[in-house]
Amino acid sequence: MRLTAEKLAARRGEDLLFSDISFELGAGEGLILIGRNGSGKSTLLRVVAGLLRPEFGQVRWSSSSTDDAIRASEACHYLGHRNAMKAELSVQENLAFWKEFCGDFGGGEGVSVAEAAEQVGLGGIAHLPFGYLSAGQQRRMAFAKLLVSYRPVWILDEPTAALDTRAEATFADLIRQHLARGGILLAATHQPLGIEGMQELRMTGFAGVAEEFAA
Length: 215
Ligand SMILES: Nc1ncnc2c1ncn2[C@@H]1O[C@H](COP(=O)(O)OP(=O)(O)OP(=O)(O)O)[C@@H](O)[C@H]1O
Description:
The protein is of the alpha/beta class. The protein has six helices and nine strands, in the order βββαββαααβαβββα. The protein is 29% helix and 26% strand. The chain is globular, with a radius of gyration of 17 Å. 38% of the residues are buried. Bound molecules: adenosine-5'-triphosphate (ATP). Adenosine-5'-triphosphate binds next to helix 1.
C-alpha cells in the first residue's frame, strides 16, 4: 500500500504557504513535518487528511487489497490539535461513537473501547465524562480513537502536546506497533517522538502569492 502526495500547494488567504510538495510513503514508513510556528505543517496535514482542498496537486492512495479509486482520506485517521470529543459524554460514549463513525478500513480491525482505554493507560476511568479528565488524560483518550477503528494512515498534529514523559513513551510504543503492522505515519511535531527511521520534511512557510504560482 502507498500514500502518494503529488506537487501539493495550499493557500491561506492570498499567500501560498507551500508549493510543489511531493512524497510517497509505503507500509511501515513515516514522515515527520518540522518547522517554525505558522510554517504550514497543520495545513499540509489537513490537506492530506482531505479536510482542506489543495490549491494544486493531489493525494492518492493505492493498495492491492482495496479499490484504488477510493479517496486517500478514507485510509486516514486524523488527530488534530483539538481532541474532537464531547466534554459531557463519558470517555466510553465518545470512543464508541468514533468506533461506529469511522468503521474499519479494509485489511484490519480496531480494538474494543475498553482495550483502547487500557492501551493508552487509562482503563480505570473510561466511565468518567471526558470533560472531567486532565489535559494529558484527554490527549491520551483522543489517541485511543486511532485504536478503536482501523485506518492504515495515522495523521497526527502535535500528538504529544500536554503529555508527561510516560505517556510520550506509551504513544511512541503505539506508533511503533502501528508501523510494525504495516501502517503509515504522517506527523507534525516540535518535540521528537523518539521513533527511529522516520523521514523528515522541513516546512519553511511563505511560498509566494497564489496568482504568481498559477501564472
Ligand atoms: N483559516 C485560516 N485563514 C487564514 N490563514 C490561516 C488560516 N488558518 C491558518 N492560517 C495561517 O496559515 C499559516 C500556517 O498555519 P499552520 O497552522 O498550518 O502552521 P503550523 O506550521 O502548523 O504552526 P504551529 O507550529 O504553530 O502549529 C499561519 O500563518 C496561519 O496564521
